[in-house]
Specification:
The chain is of the alpha/beta class and about 325 residues long. Helix content is about 35%, strand content about 30%. The protein folds into 2 domains: about 5-90, Alpha-Beta Plaits, CATH 3.30.70.2880; about 95-325, Rossmann fold (3-Layer(aba) Sandwich), CATH 3.40.50.150. It has 12 helices and 14 strands. A 7-stranded mixed beta sheet has the order 10-9-8-11-12-14-13, sandwiched between helices. Helix 1 crosses helix 2 and helix 5 packs parallel to helix 6 (about 185-195).
């Protein structure tokens, strides 16, 4: 596995016409492995191009000049300049340019933006990693917007909220379930906003470890439990049901497969937030959940992706609707 620590890199620069720049790039591609170098070029003035060749490790300058001389002429080889760049953590550099995502009162940010989160916002610190969910994707963003509206509605009507309608003995158990948690961003957001226990799972062991670490970074480790499991058949899910709020930001096929177990685990008046759906797929997902007695509350569409908010109507409401012929 490559060493992820910062290393010194070298860059060779040349100003030339477009044809020469292309000849040099082609010659390098034939002589070096793709992971050993990278080239970039931009037009300085009409017809004049600036070429930069970045090497992972400092190359043999004489060999590079000889290669360029054979490809583009001795003048190009002599004009080439080399410099060594200071060791740089390029992952951190890329994260610094990753702007925070705002979704209602939620702000998903990296460690470098921690001090800039306003006091009236709910900051969620998530670093890019080998797990899905930094808030930049339309699906995660849509789920956060849905959660923000749910939390606001709960505050306005506490006696009608999904969480407060659960029996008191359930209040100490997990009232939120996040399926396919990834980085844990949605589970962390729910734990911070609701201050209630949250249960999350993922089929990927790496994602589970990342979500647990993120829970501790965000100081909700005591509220959030992350388990490594596929589906909803494991005992922990049944033991903590019913859930007042459930998230599933995955894909259409697994969402349809989970319709029955999710419908069984959600509380009366409980809400389910589905995402990971292209806008054109929303109808297919909705049909599966409607067939199990859930009703659509809200649809959020962002960047071509759809987030659906569904509710499990209480039996009294369902009976009233049935009598009315709805």
């Amino acid at each position: 596995m490559p060493d992820p620590s910062p290393i010194a890199t070298a860059v060779a620069r040349l100003s030339s016409d477009a044809s020469t720049a292309q000849k040099i790039a082609d010659a390098l591609a034939e002589s070096f492995q793709a992971e050993e170098f990278a080239t970039s070029a931009f037009e300085e003035t009409p017809g004049r191009w600036s070429l930069a060749i970045h090497f992972r490790q400092r190359p043999d300058e004489a060999a590079v000049r000889a290669l360029i001389a054979s490809a583009a002429g001795t003048w190009a080889a002599h004009a080439l300049t080399f410099e060594t760049l200071a060791p740089t953590d390029w992952v951190s550099k890329s994260l610094e340019s990753l702007a925070p995502v705002e979704a209602g009162r939620f702000v998903v940010h990296g460690a470098h933006h921690r001090a800039h989160v306003l006091a009236n916002r709910i900051g969620i610190e998530i670093e890019a990693a080998l797990a899905f969910g930094t808030g930049h994707h339309g699906t995660t963003h849509g789920c956060l917007l849905a959660l923000d509206r749910i939390v606001k509605a709960r505050r306005r009507q506490r006696d009608k909220s999904a969480v407060s309608t659960l029996p008191r003995k359930r209040q100490r158990r997990a009232v939120v379930l996040d399926i396919g948690t990834g980085t844990g961003v949605l589970a962390i957001a729910a734990a911070k906003a609701l201050r209630r226990p949250v249960l999350a799972n993922d089929i990927d062991a790496r994602a589970v470890a990342i979500a647990r670490d993120n829970a501790h970074v965000n100081r909700v480790g005591a509220l959030l439990r992350v388990v490594h499991a596929a589906g909803l058949h494991a005992a922990p899910f049944r033991a903590r049901a019913p859930y007042g709020l459930m998230f599933a930001n995955i894909l259409l096929d697994p969402l349809r497969a989970l319709a029955t177990p999710m419908a069984r685990l959600v509380a009366a008046n409980g809400q389910i937030v589905l995402s990971g759906l292209l806008a054109a797929q929303a109808g297919a997902a909705l049909a599966s959940y409607r067939a199990r007695g859930l009703a659509l509350v809200r649809r959020i569409t962002l960047e071509g992706w759809a987030t659906l908010v569904l509710v499990r109507p209480a039996r009294r409401r369902m009976a009233k609707r049935a009598r009315a012929g709805v």
